[in-house]
């Protein structure tokens, strides 16, 4: 099935995905670089095979993000970063551009694939965003696959947390350590820790003592246009290393981390979540197209390069016509794209 009437023109499909944007050093060892590229290629193949057989954009973006959530290299699902309390708290969102239906979860700790729970929020409830314990209760009701929080333990992420804690800083996975708690005195901060997960295994394979933590980047996302002309987006993340107080970034926020509308485009963001929320990045790009007549490349470039600050991150976007844009203002962005016209690309830098 190619999604086109027999003898008629082949309906166009397109897909783009990201595995995080940031200060991705070109000195990352070649074999490690190859592992990231392999993870991106596997995810791309997953989405392409669904769309090329006439599958829906919604099924494609969920399947791609599940693949990336299961890969310990990326900051989502299995490979998520640690909170200050040494737990893992996951955020995800999904949106259907055909109906504007959307679903999201934040702060979940026992759901193996948060993106599938987000989809069930969209399909089985009248709500958009479920958080923490309530989202876990919903997970039990709908029967998605659960796991111990220790399933998400990876040695390289734990090491990154210790580095961040040593200087009382947080780390967006795409950047260096930063101090964000300057308005909170050390005395106020004292005694706020709680117990965390215990190590099981490090299937990510980062060698102890390596500076792997400085290289691994995070948040994953996928946007797609299917042969029926429908757009969809999915985004999933572990957030930032050493986050506390239930911090939630842009990834589960519709309009900031994810947005899809058949009238314009589908967008998934990655980077400094607070900035993406302030600038309502994903919806802003869609609005520039819908109201301003911009192309997807113009709209995405405008927002990423003039509204956001250098180093904040990037987006992947696909328009209702199947045009793909993947601008970023950081050093690099793990990304890949393919379409029915032969586009096939997997990249980290320019
Ligand atoms: N945007 C994500 C967050 O702020 C992090 C990232 O994309 O690296 O939670």
Automatic annotation (TrEMBL):
Listed Low complexity bias regions: 201-210
Active site as annotated: 219
Chain coiled-coil ranges: none
GO biological process: proteolysis
Residues under site feature: Cleavage: 218-219
InterPro entries xrefs: Ntn_hydrolases_N, Peptidase_T2
GO molecular function, one term: beta-aspartyl-peptidase activity
Binding site for substrate: 247-250, 270-273
Spans annotated as Disordered: 189-210
Entry protein name: beta-aspartyl-peptidase
Gene3D superfamilies cross-referenced by the UniProt entry: (Glycosyl)asparaginase
Keyword set, alphabetical order: Autocatalytic cleavage, Hydrolase, Protease
Catalysed transformations (reactions): Cleavage of a beta-linked Asp residue from the N-terminus of a polypeptide
